[in-house]
Design goal:
The complex is a heterodimer of chains A (170) and B (201).
Chain A: H1 2-14, H2 20-32, H3 34-52, H4 61-87, H5 92-111, H6 122-143, H7 158-168
Helix pairs in contact in A: 1-2, 1-3, 2-3
Chain B: H1 3-10, H2 19-30, H3 34-56, H4 59-76, H5 86-107, H6 130-148, H7 151-162, H8 167-174, H9 178-198
Classes of the chains: A mainly alpha (170), B mainly alpha (201).
């Protein structure tokens, strides 16, 4: 049983991963046990052999891939954009449809605005009132030819008066 | 990038970079600088090539995989988030690509890298000293034995013995606990020893 236990520790022993007590136990055991001593020396030998497999690296690894890396630099920049596109779910067809629908909505709001009041512009308001006033005068003149011309101001709501005064004076 | 640091990294005797230098290099690389990538290739080509050689057993395949690994690193470096050391991330890519390559070949039933005892070894120079002939034969035998190991065992042995990775680094590359590294190394060494014994070296 002791052999098995010792042999289980041999791998960690060659990597120096045992505590002092375990190390001493192994060192004492292999002095007296040829089987465990053989395993230890073979482990060490195999480790050395694998380390000896190391070879000088062939030259020109960089030179062999340089062109692809540098040409890939542009692709890389492009692909960064495509990652963003992907993240935001950007696709040509939905994008065109989305733009079209948005444009329709904006146009609809401009032309069919229910709150739209063409009298918002003071000039329009003035022209409107002035036109009404002139027509009223003409109608009055035509129907009451004999009566002298009497210039009467049109009846305007108080708010409009204030508004006109503010913009055009008296 | 400072020209001073470029000269430092490209020098013949490649020194291991400090963590900060490694970090800076990776960041420049993530920014798409091919100069930084060149430095990374020159810094790590020895490790990558030797791991690939250990995993595949053929210098030509190792060279091909080394090139593929660096192209893959260039492509994926944006995904590296500095949660581990760059080198362990790189070793993970190398070992995975080697295993994928072996699996791909296995599926295609063509295995030019597989070594067997019948394969003739031809010395490059007929005047090669006896010692070198022995070394070459020993290496051939060893590669054949490694070829019989499970990929996981081969991987851990190559990383530990060839690249001298610590148990902590191994745990990071293999994505397992240090305890698991310890037991897996024990199993791998025991099985390799048995295979080599059967070959009656």
């Amino acid at each position: 049983m002791k052999h098995r236990r010792i042999q289980k520790l041999l791998s960690a022993y060659i990597d120096d991963k045992l505590n002092l007590k375990e190390r001493q136990e192994i060192e004492m055991h292999i002095h007296t046990c040829d089987e465990c001593a053989d395993i230890l020396s073979e482990f060490k030998q195999n480790s050395q052999w694998i380390a000896d497999l190391r070879q000088p690296t062939p030259l020109r690894i960089w030179e062999a891939i340089q062109e692809q890396i540098i040409s890939g630099q542009q692709t890389k920049n492009r692909s960064r954009f495509s990652r963003i596109r992907h993240r935001w779910g950007f696709r040509p067809v939905p994008a065109v449809m989305g733009t079209f629908v948005t444009a329709c909505l904006v146009l609809a709001l401009v032309y069919l605005n229910p709150n739209q009041n063409y009298l918002d512009d003071p000039i329009d308001l003035y022209v409107e009132i002035h036109t009404d006033y002139e027509i009223h005068n003409l109608v009055t003149q035509n129907t009451n030819v004999n009566q002298p011309f009497e210039k009467t101001e049109p009846e305007l709501p108080e708010e409009t008066e204030i508004f006109l005064d503010a913009h055009y004076g008296d | 990038m400072e020209s001073l640091s470029v000269a430092h990294f490209i020098s013949e005797e490649v020194e291991e970079p400090t963590d900060q230098q490694e970090r800076d290099l990776v960041k420049h690389c993530q920014g798409g600088e091919s100069q930084a990538m060149e430095q990374i290739v020159r810094l790590y080509q020895n490790q990558v090539y030797n791991i690939a050689y250990g995993m595949l057993g053929s210098p030509e395949d190792a060279q091909d995989i080394t090139q593929d690994v660096f192209l893959s690193v260039w492509e994926k470096i944006g995904q590296f988030q500095f949660k581990s050391r760059f080198s362990t991330w790189l070793y993970r890519i190398v070992t995975n690509m080697c295993i994928n390559e072996k699996n791909r070949r296995y599926r295609r039933q063509t295995s030019p890298t597989e070594m067997d005892d019948s394969q003739a070894w031809t010395p490059v120079d007929s005047r090669t000293p006896e010692k070198e002939v022995l070394l070459a034969e020993q290496q051939e035998m060893l590669q054949a034995a490694l070829g019989q190991l499970k990929q996981d065992y081969r991987k851990i042995l190559i990383l530990r013995e060839m690249e001298n990775l610590s148990y902590d680094e191994l745990a990071e590359v293999l994505n397992c606990s240090v305890g698991r590294v310890k037991s897996r190394l024990h199993e791998a060494r025991t099985i390799l020893r048995k295979i080599l014994k059967q070959k009656d070296w």
